[in-house]
Amino acid sequence: MHKFKRHSVAQQRTRTRQFYQRKQEAVMTNCNSCNKQSPTAFCEQCHYPGIEDDYQTYLDLLDEGHSRHQAAVLSGWRGAEEIEEAV
Ligand SMILES: [Zn+2]
Asked: What total number of domains does the chain contain?
């Protein structure tokens, strides 16, 4: 009985820690695309498979001196406003 009680307290602590970690992440991050608060780098609305790769390519192209529009077109990054305007 003693052992069971100790075990359950430890579990509770772990759960509390996980909860606060998740809460902190959710407050810390904004969507890289629409800038809304999001628990991830991209909110559910903007996210599509491979968006992280496209976004990284987009940033690399900007570094190389391309304009935001050029970088968006070349990378296939669908989060940039410029793409929506062009389509
Ligand atoms: Zn978004």
From this structure: 1
Distance from C-alpha of 5 to C-alpha of 11, rounded to nearest angstrom: 10
What is the Rg, in whole angstroms, of the alpha carbon atoms belonging to the chain?
20
pLDDT in tens, 33-72: 998 888 889 999 999 999 999 999 999 999 999 999 899 9
30 alpha carbon to ligand 1 midpoint, in Å?
A: 8
For residue 82, give its domain range.
48-87
23 alpha carbon – ligand 1 mean position (Å) = 18
Residue 39 maps to a domain: no
Distance of CA 22 from the midpoint of ligand 1 (Å): 19
**Range of 4-8, 12-16, 68-72, 75-79 with top mean pLDDT:** 68-72
